[in-house]
From TrEMBL:
Residues 263-474 form the ABC-2 type transporter transmembrane domain. The chain crosses the membrane at residues 282-304, 316-336, 356-383, 392-414, 420-443, 509-530. Its main location: membrane. This is ABC transporter domain-containing protein. PANTHER family: ABC TRANSPORTER G FAMILY MEMBER 11, OS09G0472100 PROTEIN. InterPro entries: ABC2_TM (IPR013525), ABC_transporter-like_ATP-bd (IPR003439), ABC_transporter-like_CS (IPR017871), ABCG_dom (IPR043926), P-loop_NTPase (IPR027417), Plant_ABCG (IPR052215). One of its GO terms (cellular component) is membrane. Pfam families: ABC2_membrane (PF01061), ABC2_membrane_7 (PF19055), ABC_tran (PF00005). Residues 144-198 form the ABC transporter family G domain. The keyword GTP-binding does not apply. Keywords: Membrane, Transmembrane, Transmembrane helix, Transport. Belongs to the ABC transporter superfamily. ABCG family. Eye pigment precursor importer (TC 3.A.1.204) subfamily. One of its GO terms (molecular function) is ABC-type transporter activity.
Length: 568
């Protein structure tokens, strides 16, 4: 699609500042675990300025909920795949509530009445009309099959058919255009239904009175030509030219949104509640971790200090470092849903990428600690690893860090591959490669030097996780030596050097620090990719717009009706 033309704000080319515009998408992307009150109140805390008190923000949120007729559903969860919640129409009203909290100067609504009955549609649109009157706002809506009462609420009407402007002007003059061209609206018929049926050529049949033998395409051409030569079109073009030449003052650049610290705190609270209520985020994973660690603990139970326990210890620790952390990708579908919400809220300028990353990171820490501590303790003590409490704490911290690192990798994958099925496949593939050359299945000295040893072996986090677990367990132990001609015992340090080929030039704490550094790097990569994509997209659009090729803009529903409430 090649776009041409200019978009001017007060006669100037400029980017919309926060609070200037808001867009209610056709799909209701909401956090399903929150109640209506919570969803709107958290959004109010994110959007409204810090100069407003918490009680004022709460009052604004509840007032908006009541205006949308949701007062009886305030404490009902929005609902999703796991729990029944609001109906489709109620979700649509929640989406509208969230975007009108700041009373934006421009409000774009994509089919705001979808899923609503005729009464609810009228009350919702009537409330939006009042918003335009009270605060001098401009409302632009594409609306699906409006009733006659809803249709009469609009001031201006834009009819599009297959990329052509059939009509744009006052809603009261549209009927005259159709009537003068031989397509009058029959008595007692909804004008919007009549207009759409007349210009819809999906079903090219003579279904309207007065059409005769003309095809729908000919009717559209007739109406387009008639409109272009009409006084209404000339007046619209005159108004557009007059507005574009006015050169009013620039819009206020400084948005009225909350501070970065407030955004981070609110997002942390909201994300923590969502993770607690969403079974698929951590609780299901916790149950699987318990089951896996019980399996590990019983299979390797009371491993002892025999020569054969060297291999068994290494296998058990490798399973924890590789496959137990691998299960962290199980929370990817829930994170993708968070990404959808982030995309919508970021689109409308509710908060920045940095606040989202900080909120998601801090809110996940308690759950990651929980699923690392209890399952880790089961595996650690059932197997009979080193009894020292210090060694156990290091084991848990390393498991926690490795799990957080896998989540960070999946965040980076989500920024590139937003589809959860493709994302899981991609993340599993990345982890499989890292596990393969992490130093267990093929010892480091045996890895092919080009690519697999340098650099992949040092990029794979399993290298540092395995070595940290090995150093924590084998240092300070001694085992009977079954090798002929060797000493009667073999120390843990010798096992690390010769058996596992562990790098002994630094302590286990350095491995832990490197893993923490990788967590930070992957989270920064996620932040950088999101910012880069946001900057590249406009450049691509500008390049496409500058292309010499020209084509009409084909709408998803070519015969849809678009209506505009002019600014009062």
């Amino acid at each position: 699609m090649h776009q041409t033309g200019d978009i001017l704000i007060n006669g100037r080319k400029e980017t919309l500042a926060f609070g200037t515009s808001a867009y209610v998408t056709q799909d209701d992307t909401l956090m399903t675990t929150l109640t209506v009150r919570e969803a709107v109140f958290y959004s109010a805390q994110l959007q409204l300025p810090d100069s407003m008190s918490i009680s004022e923000k709460k009052e604004r949120a509840e007032m908006t909920i009541r205006e949308m007729g949701l007062q009886d559903s305030m404490d009902t969860r929005i609902g999703g795949w796991s729990t029944k919640g609001l109906s489709g129409g109620q979700k649509r009203r929640v989406s509208i509530c969230i975007e009108i909290l700041t009373w934006p100067k421009l409000l774009f609504l994509d089919e705001p009445t979808s899923g609503l009955d005729s009464a609810a549609s009228y009350h919702v649109m009537n409330r939006i009309v009042k918003l335009a009157h009270q605060h001098g706002r401009t409302i632009i809506a594409s609306i699906h099959q409006p009733s006659s009462e809803v249709f009469e609420l609009f001031h201006n009407l834009c009819l599009l058919s297959y990329g052509k402007t059939v009509y744009f002007g006052p809603i009261s003059m549209a009927e005259m255009l159709f009537a003068t061209n031989g397509f009058p609206c029959p008595p007692l018929r909804n004008p919007s239904d009549h207009y759409l049926r007349t210009i819809n050529k999906d079903f090219d049949e003579d279904i309207e009175q007065g059409i005769g033998s003309s095809s729908t395409e000919e009717i559209i051409d007739t109406l387009v030509k008639s409109y272009k030569s009409s006084e209404i079109c000339k007046q619209v073009q005159h108004n557009v030219l007059k507005i574009s030449q006015q050169k009013r003052g620039p819009l206020e650049k400084k948005g009225s949104q909350a501070s970065f610290i407030t955004q981070s705190i609110v997002l942390t609270k909201r994300s923590f509640i969502n993770m607690y209520r969403d079974l698929g985020y951590y609780w299901l994973r916790f149950a699987i971790y318990i089951a896996l660690c019980l399996c590990v603990g019983t299979i390797f139970h009371d491993i002892g200090l025999t020569y054969g326990s060297i291999q068994a210890r290494g296998s058990m620790l490798m399973f924890v470092a590789a496959f137990l952390t691998f299960m962290a990708i199980g929370g990817f579908p829930s994170f993708v849903e968070d990404m959808k919400i982030f995309g919508r809220e970021r689109l409308n300028g509710h908060y920045g990428v940095g606040a989202f990353v900080i909120g998601n990171t801090i809110s996940s820490i308690p759950y990651l600690c929980f699923i690392s501590l209890i399952p880790g303790a089961l595996a650690y003590y059932l197997v009979g690893l080193q009894k020292s409490f210090d060694h156990f704490i290091y084991f848990v911290i390393l498991l926690f860090t490795s799990t957080m690192l896998v989540e960070s990798i999946m965040m980076t994958v989500a920024s590139v591959v937003p589809n959860y099925l493709m994302g899981i496949i991609t993340g599993a593939g990345i982890q499989g490669i890292m596990i393969l050359n992490g130093g267990f299945f093929r010892l480091p000295d045996d890895l092919p030097k080009p690519f697999w040893r340098y650099p992949m072996y040092y990029i794979a986090f399993h290298k540092y996780a395995n070595q940290g677990f090995y150093k924590n367990e084998f240092e300070g132990l001694s085992f009977p030596n079954n090798q002929v001609g060797g000493p009667p015992t073999i120390t843990g340090d010798e096992v690390l050097r010769s058996f596992w080929q562990v790098e002994m030039g630094y302590s286990k704490w350095i491995d832990l620090v490197i893993l923490f550094g990788m967590v930070v790097v992957y989270r920064l990569m996620f932040w950088g990719i999101i910012i880069t994509v946001e900057k590249i997209k406009p450049l691509i659009k500008d390049y496409m717009a500058a292309s010499p090729k020209k084509s009409s803009m084909i709408l998803e529903n070519p015969s849809s009706i678009s209506s505009q409430l002019e600014m009062l």
